[in-house]
Amino acid sequence: MSDLVRISMSLENSLLENFDEYVENQGYPTRSEAIKALMRQSLSEQAWTQNQLVAGSVTLVYDHHRQGIVKRLMDVQHDFGAVIVSTQHVHLDHHHCLEIIVVKGKASLIRELVGVFKSMKGVKHNSPVMVSVGKSLA
Ligand code: NI
Q1: pLDDT single digits (tens) 14-60
Q2: I need a labelling partner for 116 at 20 to 30 A (CA). Which of 41, 63, 74, 78 fits?
Q3: Ligand 1 center to residue 75 CA distance, Å?
Q4: What is the pLDDT of residues 92-110, one digit of tens each?
């Protein structure tokens, strides 16, 4: 476990009041936990934009009756096999499928994969969630 350090900071009272309200609304047990979560989120966003190693998921919803979409999605997933760890498929209703694609790899390649899904007609929902991998998780 990493060593804990204590820091202090100066900020406007109104900002602290707003933040404390946020901490309570979000259900964090303490300010420290809220700040740590926000720091990790910022580091993940940095990893995502700076082409570092990331992991996460891409959630898709699509109408499987649309001509050719199932084959196209399968072809794309084979093309990006280097970053796709696993896929979970749920038959939502008569028309719609939900797919959760777990990914891990260089952010640029995963961004490219998300872009390909975005360009596909029939994909109604395309939602990536990325976290950084490595020392920023400390
Ligand atoms: Ni299905």
Answers
A1: 999 999 999 999 999 999 999 999 998 888 888 888 888 999 999 99
A2: 41
A3: 16
A4: 999 999 999 999 999 999 9
Q: Give this prediction's pTM.
A: 0.79
Domain count, the chain: 2
Give yes or no for a contact between 59 and 133, defined as CB atoms under 8 angstroms apart.
Answer: no
Residue with structure tokens 């964090």?
28
101 neighbors 87 (Cβ within 8 angstroms):
yes
d(CA 55, CA 132): 6
Using the mean position of ligand 1's atoms as its centre, give its distance from the Cα of residue 64 in Å.
7
> 70 C-alpha vs ligand 1 centroid, how far in Å?
9
Domain that holds residue 25: 13-49
> How close is the Cα of 91 to the center of ligand 1, in Å?
4
Helix (H, G, I), strand (E, B) or coil at 88: strand
Q: Which residues surround ligand 1, an ion (CB under 5 A)?
A: 91, 97
